[in-house]
């Protein structure tokens, strides 16, 4: 099952997909990993796993439209059935998001619709939240706004910092993201009219 993964950083979610696929729990073929940052450690993880990598530096493009158009061409040469955003820290143009509508997933470290955008862990702590978590969703043109597929939550302890909370959330991410990818590859997870369905029931 051909997928392309986009990253900007450490790539621990990419690693979870690689590991589950090597262990035979996930029947996917990661055709390529693309990063907008040359120094992203996830590129090393991909190389170690023998996966082709590309860097497409957004700073060498005059506009977001031009960057996204080139990114789309790069992705589409692999003809993936699914595009997986795994810590890809770029806002997407509407054209790009529409092109992959219903076949592009993102993972966002909050219990959406709460805390879209950045610094989610600190914002949840500052707001005095008792729980926090992570969401996998279909990507829509609205930032962190597409149909939610799956969430996992954790309690916020008195002594939690943004860093300790990020660690807790990361371990949840590595469980739920491969699961959502698995469902999609098995055609159990589908998308119609802006909504996510699992086994034919709306989520
Ligand atoms: C994760 O926290 C994810 O939720 C967010 O970016 C981070 C990526 O982490 N979208 P990693 O690069 O997969 O380790």
Description:
The chain is of the alpha/beta class. The protein has one domain (2-202): Rossmann fold. The chain has six helices and ten strands, in the order E-H-E-H-E-H-E-H-E-H-E-E-H-E-E-E. The strands form two sheets. The chain has a seven-stranded mixed sheet, with helices on one face. Strands 8-9-10 form a three-stranded antiparallel sheet. It starts with a strand and ends with a strand. Bound molecules: 5-O-phosphono-beta-D-ribofuranosylamine. The site of 5-O-phosphono-beta-D-ribofuranosylamine has 14 residues, from helix 1 and strand 5. Pfam families: Formyl_trans_N.
Note poorly predicted spans.
none
Identify the CATH homologous superfamily: Formyl transferase, N-terminal domain
- How is the CATH topology named? Rossmann fold
The gross shape turns out to be globular
Tally of individual helices:
6
Q: Say which molecules are bound, naming each kind only once.
A: 5-O-phosphono-beta-D-ribofuranosylamine
Whole-number average pLDDT?
A: 97
The N- to C-terminal Cα distance equals 23 Å
Number of DSSP-assigned strands: 10
CATH class call: Alpha Beta
Number of domains: 1
Order of SSEs, N→C? EHEHEHEHEHEEHEEE
The biggest beta sheet is recorded as: 7 strands, mixed
Strand order in the sheet with the most strands = 3-2-1-4-5-6-7
CATH architecture descriptor? 3-Layer(aba) Sandwich
Query: How large is the radius of gyration?
Result: 16 Å
The helical percent reads 25-40%
Strand content: 25-35%
Catalytic activity: N(1)-(5-phospho-beta-D-ribosyl)glycinamide + (6R)-10-formyltetrahydrofolate = N(2)-formyl-N(1)-(5-phospho-beta-D-ribosyl)glycinamide + (6S)-5,6,7,8-tetrahydrofolate + H(+)
InterPro entries: Formyl_transf_N (IPR002376), Formyl_transf_N_sf (IPR036477), GART (IPR004607)
Family: Belongs to the GART family.
Pfam family, one: Formyl_trans_N
């Amino acid at each position: 099952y051909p997928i392309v993964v986009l990253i900007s950083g450490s790539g621990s979610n990419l690693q979870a997909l690689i590991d589950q696929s090597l262990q035979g729990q996930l029947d996917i073929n990661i055709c390529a990993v693309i990063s907008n940052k040359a120094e992203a450690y996830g590129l090393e993880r991909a190389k170690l796993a023998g996966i082709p990598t590309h860097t497409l530096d957004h700073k060498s493009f005059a506009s977001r439209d031009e960057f996204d158009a080139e990114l789309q061409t790069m992705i589409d040469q692999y003809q993936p059935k699914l595009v997986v955003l795994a810590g890809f820290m770029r806002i997407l143009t509407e054209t790009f998001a529409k092109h992959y509508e219903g076949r592009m997933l993102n993972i966002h470290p909050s219990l959406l619709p709460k805390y879209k955008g950045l610094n989610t862990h600190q914002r949840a702590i500052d707001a005095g939240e008792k729980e926090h978590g992570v969401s996998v969703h279909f990507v829509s043109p609205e930032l962190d706004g597409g149909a939610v597929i799956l969430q996992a939550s954790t309690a916020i302890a008195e002594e939690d910092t943004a860093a300790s909370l990020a660690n807790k959330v990361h371990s949840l991410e590595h469980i739920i993201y491969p699961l959502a990818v698995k469902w999609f590859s098995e055609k159990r997870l589908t998308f119609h009219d802006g909504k996510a369905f699992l086994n034919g029931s709306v989520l």
